[in-house]
Amino acid sequence: MGACGCSRHSELSIPLDRASFGGRGLCYCRVAQTDLPAGASPGERGMWGSPRTELAGRRSWKGPRGISAFTFTLQGAANAGSGGAVPPSRWARQQVPAPLTQPGPPRSRLSYVEINISKARMAALFSTLPFADKSSLMMMMMTISILNVAVSVNNDHSSKNRETADVVSGNGSKPFPWDKMRLPKHVIPVHYDLLLHPNLTTLTFTGFARIEITVNQQISSVILHSKHLQITRAAIQRRMGNSHTEEVVMVLEYPPFEQIALLAAFPLHVGQNYTVSIEYSANLSESFHGFYKSTYRTQEGEVRVLASTQFEPTAARMAFPCFDEPSFKARFSIKIRREPKHLALSNMPIVKSVSVANWLVEDHFDVSVKMSTYLVAFIVSDFKSVSKMTTSGIKISVYTVPDKINQADYALDAAVKLLDFYENYFSIPYPLPKQDLAAIPDFQSGAMENWGLTTYRESSLLYDPEKSSASAKLWITMIIAHELAHQWFGNLVTMEWWNDLWLNEGFAKFMEYVSVSITHPDLKVEDYFLGKCFDAMEVDALNSSHPVSTPVEDPAQIQEMFDDVSYEKGACILNMLRDYLNADVFKAGLVQYLRKYSYQNTKNEDLWNSLAHTCSAGDTQEGQLQGDGFCTRNQQTSSSAHWTRREILDVTTMMNTWTLQKGFPLVTVTVKGKTVHLHQEHYMKGSDSSPSTGYLWHVPLTYITSKSDTVQRFLLTTKTDVLILPEEVEWIKFNLGMNGYYIVHYEDDGWDALISLLKKNHTAISSNDRASLINNVFQLVSIGKLSISKALDLSLYLKHESQIMPVFQGMNELIPMYKLMEKRDMDDVENQLKGYIVNLFKDLIDKQSWNDEGSVSERMLRSSLLLFACARKYQPCVDKAEEYFMKWKESNGTLRLPNDVKTAVYAVGAQTIEGWDFLFSKYRLPWFNTERNQIEVALSISRNKDKLQWMMDQSLLGDVVKTQDLPHIIVFVAKNPSGYHLAWKFLKENWNKLVQKFELGSASIAHMVIGVTNQYSTREQLAEVKEFFNSLDEKSSQLRCVQQAVEIIEENIRWMDINFEKIKIWLQNNM
Ligand SMILES: [Zn+2]
């Protein structure tokens, strides 16, 4: 799963953007003024349901150090003193009998709270938290609560009158027995028995977790994760001969690390089995993770509630106490209690349902395979479903709210095809008997790969053949492909820790293209892959970027890993490796990797070793590699001396240069006769000269020339190298199809030769090569290697371009230039530039038909071009859109508009107050649900400031506009020349609410921070942005997205200082 942020220059965005293809939010970030609706974007994180740990309704007490303390007294349970009860005196340094707060049965035992954080412990905490804000940590520690629940022995966990509690002051001392954020390795969970009972009326749930553990060193406490759970009882069961004894244990909680400690009275010994059991209750989360509440409105207007889960990366601990790290894999037996009118879903199928009361059914799910906690899922809802079987007999079902069940068929068919494909491709059977795909009405990201129960935003799963756009079809197919790929990459084989998240996400992103290109050839997804690499490079070119594999520790840092570097760059370097090894060898290596590490966890090097071994068996002689694929081709291409060097098989060394260093190389090519001089350096924005980071990459170069269109290869491993061509050439083009993750500069007259080729005969090279030239030429302007006039010279050829990727890339480079000017009142040049771009694409715009005919790429191109043209007030387009809008309005919204031109029609209609109001009245209706995102785009293009403000306010309220749509609504408004001040103000004024809703470190926050500020280009704007973020606490001000935002604005300022006058002159000469 994941989230998405947007490129620096994104405008409203287009369907083709990065996020449209992936297991993440759909955030329409690339290209134009045009755009399709965001289907799913970084959603939101709500406020925690239960922000404190004390038991509801009880007094809390601020201790002498400001630390809350709670003491629970227990009543009932009379058999004190028998079999392993905790003698309170063992634990309480000072016993303080808890006074009764109300009359009740006599207490049979008392328990006590002790709180004391020693200075040494504080110091230890600080030292383990390199990035933590120390002042905020201090605050957290001040509110630390340590629960001391001492309970008399009572083996019946369902005992009704067991405990009530009072809270009294306590000032004992019981340090938390663990001082690291990562859990100790000496307790291993083996099996979880979970019983959950959500109450959809009171919006609370109770739970009982029984966890079988083994220990590999003698211990006296069990440390595990728990967050916002009110623990009412905890016990450790041990086997003594043939009998079991249960010891009720004291629980300490350490909220800053989201950990609890169960303190055993007697040590736990190596080699013995123990069972930890914990009873607890909590509120259903109001956010979008943990066990959370979601609501929807029926066609009749009734609001219904359901409960669903989102645990990745660190929220399983909000639903049940657990060892919440990906390497603690275990089996799960889940039971869920529900009302008879609801149904419950989980990872496994139901094996039986028992009636526990008239109004209560308990579903027992089959025991799961061994898996990580973040993949556990359960849903209680009134969903309906449709099902089909795959060829190998796996039952696939799509679940949705009842009113939308007729939109489930496309996803069902796609999922059947894709699961069949993966079973075949990986040669490893899907290990569960079923796969459910569920559309959740409130969802943060695009989708989530829970094993056997993948969950989706509605717009990521539901497709209406009558009403959905072409881009929706593409997006839904890709996201299902992504989540199903995870069933192997991620679920079967999981990264050891979140620092290697890319092993999950890079692979799933990459496999989307591999699978969909075969299962859905009509979508031609392979054409769009390079867009992922452009997007990744956008953030990877900044100093604030990070290596693909990066150390992380706390939940906010883990959240920040769900970014373009893990997803897009991860996918791009895998694609580069596949191109280098060849598809067969690459696939064989993957299969070997998946087989070898099934149900286990891996690191980077495990993958490289598997891939390297695939070929090395035959690697006895240099240049004599045997086998198919790469090994054979290696012989065939041995004419190049560099290609057959032994180090070619050193996959680990090569790939370490891509995963352990941030950024990417710029390769400069200088042709002198038949000699080609090569030079690599670190491409980094922010200065005219490249920084001396000393980074070197092993770059698998590919090239063609004017004399040969056979792809040649050359592995560049040094800073400079030379290759000799067989003959002199007119032009040379490197990085074929943008399969490599690097950009290329052609020195001397190298660019002129390519520009003249594009002007004379642009189809001599592929459309992806054209798109990559457009990208590279503008990248080189940013670092001062080329002048803007050279890049604009190249753009002139676009007048003859008709293919989607070069057109989109052209828009993606040109539109942001005037977007910067829009925020600085530079009307003259801004308008000239707008005129230039419209003129460039005018012929193509004029050719567009206003219907839904053609291939998916033709339809997406049409949709984006027409929205761009209408937004740019290109009269023929506006006239046509107005006419459509009038007719649609006259029909009271019943007229069927072509799906791919709807956004343009709505956008033009929303320019008047009446039109806007009419459109909004339709937005609210259930039967416009598939168009909601398109309407949001149109509404946010309005020039009316009150309307824009109202929309943002409504999305924060979350009633008529879903809060999950808030991040992209704010960003849309920020792209609007009438709205960018409002969006910035809104972000500042609501910062605390937004962070509460969406959580620090999340992609949603990053999307808003960058999306709102990335078109600023003045020193005043920079100062304002810096001032605001500096005024926040350290955790907020040090977010990576804040660093990115500042770097982007600095880069914009530099860029405008250097290029603005030159653009003005170039336009005067070329218009
Ligand atoms: Zn994913």
UniProtKB/TrEMBL annotation:
The active site is at E483 (proton acceptor). CDD domains: M1_APN-Q_like. Pfam families: ERAP1_C (PF11838), Peptidase_M1 (PF01433), Peptidase_M1_N (PF17900). It is a single-pass type II membrane protein. The keyword Heme does not apply. It is found in: Endoplasmic reticulum membrane. SUPFAM superfamilies: Leukotriene A4 hydrolase N-terminal domain, Metalloproteases ('zincins'), catalytic domain. Residues 189-375 form the Aminopeptidase N-like N-terminal domain. Binds 1 zinc ion per subunit. GO terms for cellular component: endoplasmic reticulum membrane; extracellular space. Its cofactor is Zn(2+). GO terms for molecular function: metalloaminopeptidase activity; peptide binding; zinc ion binding. Keywords: Adaptive immunity, Aminopeptidase, Disulfide bond, Endoplasmic reticulum, Glycoprotein, Hydrolase, Immunity, Membrane, Metal-binding, Metalloprotease, Protease, Signal-anchor, Transmembrane, Transmembrane helix, Zinc. The record marks Y567 as: Transition state stabilizer. Residues 410-614 form the Peptidase M1 membrane alanine aminopeptidase domain. Zn(2+) binds at H482, H486, E505. Residues 731-1050 form the ERAP1-like C-terminal domain. Its main location: endoplasmic reticulum. One of its GO terms (biological process) is proteolysis. Belongs to the peptidase M1 family. Monomer. May also exist as a heterodimer; with ERAP2. Interacts with RBMX. Aminopeptidase that plays a central role in peptide trimming, a step required for the generation of most HLA class I-binding peptides. Peptide trimming is essential to customize longer precursor peptides to fit them to the correct length required for presentation on MHC class I molecules. Strongly prefers substrates 9-16 residues long. Rapidly degrades 13-mer to a 9-mer and then stops. Preferentially hydrolyzes the residue Leu and peptides with a hydrophobic C-terminus, while it has weak activity toward peptides with charged C-terminus. May play a role in the inactivation of peptide hormones. This is Endoplasmic reticulum aminopeptidase 1. The lineage of its organism: Eukaryota, Metazoa, Chordata, Craniata, Vertebrata.
